[in-house]
């Protein structure tokens, strides 16, 4: 059994993906070829957003978003401490200060009440100018955007949506990766919409940001290729990756349905015994991960027992980013973010992918129930 089974998906889509790859090999436009433009149009249509701009990976997407907003060394950006390192890293790379704000239990996303406290406190005592909130759609669940957007308006902050795990989710029918002034995603193979290598995309309705982003991803190009008008990056999506993603996007909605059915079955089985992930009313998760917390039974014991039965599990994430070595200079302490710190001690993730067979899920559930009984 695999934690995320990419081969089963490839088997289903093999003929179409192989044909798409061969088309690229035949036309030879490996960088910024026609499939890149086609994918950007399809992504924009899918989300209902004006501009979709692909790039080399989800980390660059965040960095490019910050650069397009002009966020740099005098600025600060609020982020959750419970996320993948790239969220914090992108803020530090542009020279800005990551300011952490604790998550809510069970949704694992930024807690709006804590967020307002963090904003008020930083505006009064912070070292730099607070410019933006970078919210994360952790494990596929969109952050609480109705409340976060209201706070951003109230305090005149920009909003970046780190939708690396969120693509495919929605709130009240509005799709994830459309909530930020700029939103981003990642096409890393294990993400809900993953390719066969690195890739990422940036989404916005703002024409000015879109123009800057298209320049930034190609060395700050101006009117022509060798007229560089700003310092940018080399961050483009390979044409072959775009070709693969076009075929995966075509079946993506069915995959999200399958993920949601698998998640419901897990939750029905475990919700009275463990802390199951909560999806708020009107929210839909893309279920990048199915993560569950065990308050009473040591998770290492559960994971060991699962492993003995050939069932893989993983811990996302074992440490709050405020306690990571790279963030030491920010002087955060143990105890600063209790919800994050408790979660990092008790959470673990079960196999989740759209091709998980019913028999295999039954084996996982039966073994889990036996271990925790
Ligand atoms: C994966 C991930 C990223 C970075 O994406 P890459 O494509 O791996 O660079 C950023 N933020 C979050 C929350 C992620 O899960």
Could you explain how this protein is built, in words?
The protein is of the alpha/beta class and 373 residues long. 42% of the residues lie in helices and 14% in strands. It is built from twelve helices and twelve strands. It has helices at 6-27, 34-47, 58-68, 85-93, 112-125, 145-154, 207-216, 239-250, 252-270, 299-308, 338-346, 358-372, and strands spanning 51-55, 75-79, 97-100, 129-136, 158-162, 170-171, 174-175, 182-186, 200-204, 283-284, 290-293, 347-350. The strands form three sheets. Strands 1-9-8-5-4-2-3 form a seven-stranded mixed sheet, sandwiched between helices. Helix 6 links the parallel strand 4 (129-136) and strand 5. Helix 9 (252-270) packs parallel to helix 12 (358-372). The longest helix has 22 residues, at 6-27. It binds pyridoxal-5'-phosphate. Residues 57-59, 83-84, 86-87, 136, 162, 164-165, 186, 188, 198, 200 line the site of pyridoxal-5'-phosphate.
- Give the strand content: 5-15%
Uncertain runs: none
Strand arrangement across the biggest beta sheet: 1-9-8-5-4-2-3
How would you name the oligomeric state of the polypeptide chains in this document?
Answer: single chain
Number of strands: 12
Ions, cofactors and other bound molecules: pyridoxal-5'-phosphate
Order of helices and strands: HHEHEHEHEHEEEEEHHHEEHHEH
Distance between the termini: 23 Å
Taking the sheet with the most strands, its summary is: 7 strands, mixed
Helix content: 40-55%
For the CA atoms, what is the radius of gyration?
21 Å
**Taking all residues together, what is the mean pLDDT?**
97
Note the total helix count.
Answer: 12
Broad shape: globular
- Estimated structural class: alpha/beta
